[in-house]
């Protein structure tokens, strides 16, 4: 009598978990082979099992189980989730950074993955407070809210949290006034950060595509440079010499 088994487990980049197991068991009467597979993803969880007796022409037995959840709040309804509980969070990401993936961290543990335009339900235990935040999977220029958000869940509670992630590009060039003189040591303001030109008017700053940069040198009135129609080279834009108007 005895048994022998082997197991394999893998978790993909989007936190889908796959587990496989195969076993053979011998007792005083029969020899039995068994295999099962489990998968857990943002859509739900499934398990398939096959049992086969080796001797005596035993019939093959099959088993299949699938479960998912429905999270319904005042402003959203989502189907999915693998760890079902009495309360849930629906995480939604909007914005223009469609190629950037974010992990949803709950108490600093990645629980789901989002891209702009997607939404996912995450089921959690009730009577707990949780800290949620986003973290980009790769270091890319993107503007998003990185602050933690605290929620408290009770049985039947569905919280809908929304984030936005917008693409940024690094622009560099030389800013000059209308008379052609460089804007020396001028303060620069974009929608996401501030910067400063050097003693020759050269600058580099992160900004959203198509927005307007504001420059102010000393006590002079502010002037602007529009990025509308600027040619992008990936995440960079070479402006050359630009006139601040």
TrEMBL record:
Entry keywords, A to Z: Plasmid
Domain Pilus assembly protein C-terminal: 153-245
UniProt xrefs under InterPro entries: CarboxyPept-like_regulatory (IPR008969), Pilus_assem_C (IPR031917)
Pfam families: CooC_C (PF15976)
Highest taxon of source: Bacteria
Name of the protein in question: CS1-pili formation C-terminal domain-containing protein
């Amino acid at each position: 009598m005895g048994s022998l088994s082997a197991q394999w487990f893998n978790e993909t980049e989007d936190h889908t978990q796959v587990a496989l197991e195969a076993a053979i068991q011998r007792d005083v009467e029969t020899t039995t082979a068994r295999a099962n597979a489990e998968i857990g993803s943002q859509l739900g969880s499934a398990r398939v099992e096959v049992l086969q007796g080796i001797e005596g022409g035993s019939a093959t037995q099959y088993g299949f189980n699938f479960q998912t959840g429905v999270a319904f709040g005042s402003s959203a309804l989502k189907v999915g989730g693998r760890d079902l509980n009495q309360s849930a969070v629906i995480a939604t990401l909007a914005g223009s950074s469609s190629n950037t993936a974010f992990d949803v961290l709950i108490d600093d543990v990645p629980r789901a993955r989002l891209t702009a335009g997607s939404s996912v339900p995450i089921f959690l235990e009730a009577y707990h407070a949780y800290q949620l935040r986003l973290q980009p999977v790769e270091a890319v220029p993107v503007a998003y809210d990185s602050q933690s958000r605290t929620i408290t869940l009770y049985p039947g509670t569905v919280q809908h949290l929304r984030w936005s992630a917008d693409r940024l590009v690094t622009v560099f060039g030389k800013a000059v006034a209308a008379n052609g003189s460089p804007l020396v040591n001028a303060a620069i303001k974009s929608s996401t950060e501030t910067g400063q030109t050097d003693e020759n008017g050269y600058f580099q700053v992160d900004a959203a595509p198509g927005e307007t940069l504001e420059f102010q040198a000393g006590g002079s009135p502010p002037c602007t440079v529009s990025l509308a129609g600027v040619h992008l080279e990936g995440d960079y834009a070479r402006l050359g010499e630009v006139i601040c108007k």
